[in-house]
Each structure stands twice: as C-alpha cells, then as structure tokens.
Amino acid sequence: MKTVHTTRILLWTPIILIGYFISAQIGFNIAFLNSQVSPVWPPEGVALSSLLLLGPAALPGIYLGATLANFYNNPHFQTAFIIGIGNTLSSYVNYRIIKRVTEKTDPLYSTKDLIYFLSIGTFPGSFLSAVMGVTSLWYWDFLSSELYFNVFFTWFSGEMLGFLIVAPLLYVWFYPKTKLNLELSKQLELFLWLIIVYISGSIAFSDEWPLLFVPIPFVIVTSIRFRQFGATLSTVVLSYIAVTLTIEGKGVFARRDASGLSINDSLIFLDAFLFCISGIAYFLVTATRERERAQETSLKSLQVLNELKEKANEELELKVLERTAVIEEQRIEIEKQLDMAKRIQESLFPQKEIIPNGVEIEFKNIPMMKVGGDLYDIVWRPEKQELGVFICDVSGHGIPAALLSALVKTSLEKWKEDPSDLKENLESIRNQIMPNLREHFVTASLLHLQTDTGVLTFARAGHFPLFIIRKSGALVSLKPMGRIITPIFDILAEEEKFQLEKGDLIVMLTDGLTEAREPSTLQMFGEDKLLRLVTDLRNKPLLTIRDEVFQSVIHLSGGIRAIQDDLTLGLIRYTGINEEKVMVGL
Q1: Could you report the per-residue pLDDT of 409-431, keeping only the tens digit for each?
Q2: What is the strand order of the sheet 455-461 is part of?
Q3: What is the pLDDT of residue 507?
Q4: Rg of the chain, C-alpha, whole Å
Q5: 256 against 443, higher pLDDT
Q6: How close are the terminal C-alpha atoms of the chain, in Å?
Q7: Helices (H) and strands (E) in the chain, counts
Q8: What DSSP letter does each residue of 370-402 carry, written as one string?
Q9: Contact between residue 552 and residue 525 where contact means Cβ atoms under 8 Å apart
Q10: What does residue 237 show for φ and ψ, rounded to 5 degrees?
C-alpha cells in the first residue's frame, strides 16, 4: 500500500507541477500593481481540483509548482519559498474544510455540499495565501506600505476567482465518475452556446451597451442543457471576458476614483457578480441532478414494490385477518377490564344514602372514558350536626387518573374522622399521595357545615371557588388561598367562613363542565353560563338542576361520546334543621 502511494506521488507530481506553472504564467500575464499579484489566479483552481481528485498525494506537485512559478517570475528565493507555502496551504486548508463538512470530495454534485463549498470552502484559504504572500513581498521591499492593502485585496480576489471558477471546471472535466459523451451535433450546440455567452458578456461589460443581465439567461440555458460541463465552461468564458474588460476599465464594475481606475474596488464588485452567476449555474445543475436521482430512486423503488406486491398480498391478507382477530380479542379483554375498573371506581363514591339534617345534597359524576380522575366524598356526623364534603380533580384522564384518584380516596381517613380541620386535612392528603404524584397534580376542596347553625367553612387546594347562590339570586364566591397539590411546594391553604341562610344553594364542580367546547367553534361552556343556568333554576329540585346542567354541557359538546374531560357537579341546599330531608342522589 505504501509503495502504491509513493508511485502515485511520483507519477502525478510532475504533471501537477507543469499544470500549475503554465496556469501561473497565464495569471502573471494580467498582473498589475505588482508583477506577482494577479486579479485572477488560475493555479489555485489547479491545486484544489488536484487535491479533490487525488488527495494529499497532490501536495508535492502543488508546492513545487507554486515555488517554481513565483521564483521564475521574481527570482528571489525567500519570497518564492514563502509564497509557495502560502499557495499550497491555501488549497490544502480549503480542501480539508470541504472534506470535513461534506465528508466527501465531490462538493459539486449535491446542493448541501455546494453550499458548503461556496460559503466556507474558498474564503479561509484565499485569506491565508493573501496574508502570507503580500506580507512577504512587503517585508523584502518588493511592495510599499501604501500599496499593501490594495495588493492584498487584489491577491485575495484572484485566489477567490481561482477557487470559484477554475477549480470547478478542472474538477468536473477530470472527475473519473462523469464523462461528457455527446454526439457531434451536441458538441456543436455546446460550442455555439459558449460563443453566445462570450458575445453577450462582451456586450454586458462594454461601455456602449452595459446590459449586465444579457449573459445570465445564456449561462442558465447552457447549464441546464449540459449540466456541470456547461455550467463550468460558461462561467469560465463569462469570467474571462468580465475580468479582461473590467481591468481595461470597461463595464459597470469599472470603478474610478481621483487617481483613475480603481482595480481593487472594481474586482471586489466583479467577484460578487461572478460569485452569484456561478452559484446560480452550479445550483441549477445540482438541483436538477438531485431531482433526477430522486426520480431514479423512486422508479427503482416502485419496480421493487411492484415485484413484491403480488407476493406480499396473500401473506398480508392472511396476516391482516390474523391480526384483526388478535386485536378484536384484545379489545374485548380491554373492555372487560375497563368495565371492571369502572365498577371499582364507582365503589369509591359514597354508596349509602346520606340524609343530613337541614340540607339537601345532589352529586353526579360522568367520566370522559369509563374511568376518570374526578372524585367526591361526603361525611355526615349526626351527633355533632356537621357535614363534610370533599371534591377533587386529578390531572389527566383514563386509567392513570383513576388510579391516582383511588390513591386520593385512601388518604381521606383522617378527614373522615374529623372533617372540621380543613387546612390540616388538605396537608395530610398531600403528604400521603405526594410520593406517587410525579408529573401529575391534584386540585381539591373541603367544605365543613354546621347544619344546626348554618356556619360554613371552606378551604381549597387550587380548586374552583365555592359558589353560593342566595335565595334572592345573588352570587357569593368564597376564594380562600390554597395552591394545587404537587410534590414541589406546600399548599398553604387558608379557611374562609360564611353564614348560610335558608334557601342558599352551594355549587361545587370540576373544570370538565366549564371547559366543555362546541366542536366547530371551540366555544367553551364557561363558568358564567353555568352559574347563570343554576341561578335561573335555583328554586327547582336539585335533581332537576343537576340534569339540566349536564344536558346543556353534553349537548354543547356534541353528545356524551364527545366530552373531552370528566364531569362532576355537586349541589347542596341549606334548608335549616326543620326543613324536609332529601336523600342523596348518586
């Protein structure tokens, strides 16, 4: 392997050296300001294309060619040595950047790699070569300090044009994987288009008819007709005539100042123009090639699919039938398990008739799925004439929420023993369920009512306020402080008291009722609409109020199967100790 590499270097070094030397003489022939500074430096195109095609094996030929060419033009060993290093490093740095970012050495055959080449594959090397070359000329007194930056920009522009124009031409025409196989008529057509590009370029960069846009469509047509071969040739022809005429002071890019023609300014603007034209040509080619490759891949894939289709149909149908049967069995089993889970969850709600003195109570829950995360519970202690009510909403839906609500149910034992200390009971609930919450959270409310006196105490943990509709229709909202139940922070709940009067109606709910949406407009049912409805019906039996609310919410949602959250509503009417007692409806 090492012998092969050495042989390759020995074979290509003289070829690259000769090519570099000849192209350098072309560049020196149009040099100005300094005999070693050319506005177009074709050797950099030779160097970069050699590296892209051969790899580091091209480095000896590049360095020897660069050093010999510069020494031949200006017989000063030190500057020739330094400039040779700069020219070699310039191409090698750009080569390494292109290979690193594209992970290949053919940047002109895909749009992404072309973007990398045009953006970061030319500038660093050009800048490095200009710094080393111009500085060496200045250091050994071949260049005055006043002309340093003028020469620097000219050098830099020449390097850029070499990379942008010459390198793609040589790379495309010597790339072993692509060959231009054209009939004689096609060859003549290509030659004709190049002549048209030359003539239109002469017009565009003349003083008589400075029509800059004239060559653009011809470059585009040549690129589309002959792909990368047409693109590189047409841009080289246009660049040649553009640079030649601009240096002569002709065309729209010939910039003049007080001392006459400013070649540096002219070339800077010309480079931008040529960069755009060459970029357009190259992008057209790469986009067309990528589309053709995609079409070829699609056709091949389609052929393979068609071949496999007949063989796969029978197997697919059989597997579909088998899978359908399995899915149906699984569906039936899941339905059974959900029915069982539903029965279990229903057992979490109060199962016995509770008939407190002095109040009527009506609660109802409809889960979005067969199970859900809403929960309520009621405690009645007749010996103390006190009523306790709990309601909560676990985040999420379905089985996960149902499991958490079951966990909440187990945490209510302390509250059932003493429903009067609301703040302590909320903290107790949080402490018991906190290890299992994780990303979930719970909102909850606790209500304590002395039915003999009508004194009501309310506390909440991020849940809805307690709504009290007076017999007159006035609305009272109790909103004590209290944060949602999460593992992150304490509840910090506060209690708020209120004196009920006979006929007052208490409303407790979860957000599924207020956030129900109309399917087409997404308009929510809303808290205000719910409270207005209850207020209008406040003198009706609680069962009637409850059913009217649920019917309105479900109708707005588009039916019972369309509800998007669990629905829970609790109604408590204070009637006083001597009022008729109404059984709890579940």
Answers
A1: 889 999 999 999 999 999 999 99
A2: 374-381, 386-394, 442-450, 455-461, 496-499
A3: 97
A4: 43
A5: 443
A6: 88
A7: 17, 12
A8: SS-SEEEEEEEETTTTEEEEEEEEESS-HHHHH
A9: yes
A10: -60, -45
DSSP secondary-structure letter at 468? Answer: E
Check residue 46 and give its pLDDT.
86
- Sequence letter at residue 373: G
Q: What angle, rounded to 10 degrees, do the helices at 263-346 and 148-161 form?
A: 60
**What pLDDT is stored for residue 288 in this prediction?**
78
- DSSP assignment, residue 580? P
What is the token pair recorded at 427?
A: 């903290």
CA distance linking residue 466 with residue 532, whole number of Å: 15
What is the model's pLDDT at position 37?
57
Is residue 448 within 8 A of residue 416, CB to CB? The reply is no
Residue 164 to residues 39, 175, 408, Cα–Cα distance (Å): 13, 17, 72
Residue 31 and residue 154 in contact, taking contact as beta carbons nearer than 8 Å: no
Single-letter residue type at 323: R
Task: Report pLDDT for 102.
Answer: 77
Q: Are 415 and 379 a contacting pair, CB within 8 Å?
A: yes
Contact (CB, 8 A) for 165 and 236: yes
Residue 448, beta-bridge partner list? 388, 457
Whole-number pLDDT of residue 473? 92
Whole-number Cα distances in Å, 345 to 7, 35, 338, 353:
83, 94, 10, 18
Token pair of 542 as six digits: 């609680």
- Provide the token pair at 266: 């002219």
If you average pLDDT over residues 156-171, what whole number do you get? 81
Place of tokens 């660049």: 239
Which is more confidently placed, 205 or 176? 205
Contact, 427 vs 460, CB < 8 A?
Answer: no
Please check the confidence at residue 479 and state whether its pLDDT lies above 90.
yes
Count of residues making up the chain: 586
pLDDT at 224 over 50: yes
User: Which residues face 362 on adjacent strands?
Assistant: 571, 585
CB atoms < 10 A from the CB of 466, how many? 25
Q: 483 falls in which pLDDT band (50, 70, 90)?
A: very high
* Spatial CA neighbour of 49 closest among 193, 212, 189, 236: 236
Nearest to 389 by CA among 483, 479, 458: 458
How many C-beta atoms lie closer than 10 Å to residue 505's C-beta? Answer: 23
C-alpha to C-alpha distance for 189 and 497, rounded to whole angstroms: 97
- Taking the C-alpha atoms of residue 543 and residue 540, their distance in angstroms, rounded to an integer, is 8
496 compared with 74, residue with greater pLDDT? 496
In the DSSP assignment, the letter for residue 248 is T
Give φ, ψ of 398 to 5 degrees. Answer: 70, -150
Q: Give the Cα separation of 514 and 528 in Å (integer).
A: 9
Secondary element (H or E) of residue 572: strand 567-574
To which residue do tokens 């250091």 refer?
139
For residue 475, the surrounding DSSP H or E stretch is strand 475-478
pLDDT in tens, 120-161: 888 888 888 889 988 988 888 888 888 888 788 878 878 887
Phi, psi of 524 (to 5 degrees): -80, 155
Segment 190-195 shows an average pLDDT of 89
* pLDDT tens-digit series, residues 362-410: 999 988 877 788 999 999 999 999 999 999 999 887 788 888 888 888 8
Could you give the 3-state DSSP secondary structure of residue 574?
strand
